[in-house]
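User: Teach me something about this protein's shape.
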Amino acid sequence: MQILITRFHLLLLTVTLAITGVAAFRIPADHVYQAHWQGSTPDWLWPRAVIFVAPLVEVALLAVFLLLGRSLTKNQYAKSQHILDPALTLLLAVVTATQLGLLLSGIGSDLDFVRLTAFGLGAALLLLGVVLFEAERHTYAGLRMPWPVRSDFAWSVVHRATGLAYGAAGLALLAMAWFDMGMGLLVAGFAASLLAPALLAGIITLAMRAR
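Assistant: First, the predicted structure itself:
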């Protein structure tokens, strides 16, 4: 059976559940997260119940990747496992780090872990963008999709477009963290920067299948 979920993925879920449990006990029930500020006035408030979103998101991600792994053929699985496995790890790690940031903020810590996560993720995506943009055909660094990229021209288009997308996403996250755009926009930026370039890569690869 082809299973993309590893023990490390389950460990990240366990850590997130543990953080959520601590947050449920330590954060007052009437606590409100000031997710975004305009001047000195909070204009985007999250209730404490937002701490229960992260475990649900991780369970959903695990379910999606479980179904994805089982739906792939052996050949497709072999070609895409080395990308899907770290992709799931990165997604879960970002959710776990965000949950830790919510805990620290909820108990009054001065450490803005969500902003630190934005700096780290932005740098990682920028590096990924450079690697993909410079990748040559038949190298380990290249994309591996379930469907083939047949020509050198298609390979170049797919990798340069995807590399630019990830690079732009990384720069955007770094800028948002540097200018301290607020927790709400940073969390939304995490989702957009991880999902939008990957979706773009899939769409372009499908469009270039016949080239």
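Now, about its shape. The CA atoms of residues 137 and 177 lie 34 Å apart. The first strand starts at residue 32 and ends at 38. If you'd like, I can walk through any region in more detail.
User: That's plenty for now, thanks!
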